[in-house]
Amino acid sequence: xxxPARISAESDGEVIRRSTREPEAFAxxxxxxxxxxxxxxxRRLGDGHADDLVAETFLIAFQRRGxxxxxxxxxxxxxxxxxxxxxARHRRTEVRVYRAMARMGGDPSVRSHADQVDVRVTAAAALxxxxxxxxxxxxxxxxxxxxxxxxxxxxxxxxGTIRSRLNRARRKLRTALGDRNPLTTAAEGESR
Length: 192
Hints:
Blueprint: H1 12-19, H2 27-45, H3 47-63, H4 76-89, H5 91-104, H6 117-129, H7 132-142, H8 148-155, H9 159-177, H10 186-191
């Protein structure tokens, strides 16, 4: 990602259409979206898998670009859908990671306050217990910052399905956490 960023006012759909004639144009999509996808995949599967999975996502997208609807201005939900399918292949590994984090005392990448480790452990265990579908919807909206509509596009389901999955996942997480927020410190929680 050290290459100079290519600037273009073209929509993603226009870039994909152009890439069918000029394959090198597809690199614009990588420049635009790879960092965001990488952060999401790294949070889901860890840094060790992120580089490979993001590269594979763009390889598959390049190979399937002829099937992309160029009337869509944004390709990000499509790319998240591809990445999500690849993550699903790693689902068993993902669940094992969450369970290991729960046994070991939380996610070491976010552990900064010892008094919150127990909440993070509970959160990791609760994530592991969610269904794959509910967890995917929740993480696309919370970690990838996709809108409900974008998450629905990424998972190829209606928006109402996303709303149902999020409602169910949030309810289960709230119950598991006893209304504690794993992202705040004890001092932050007391000052509110």
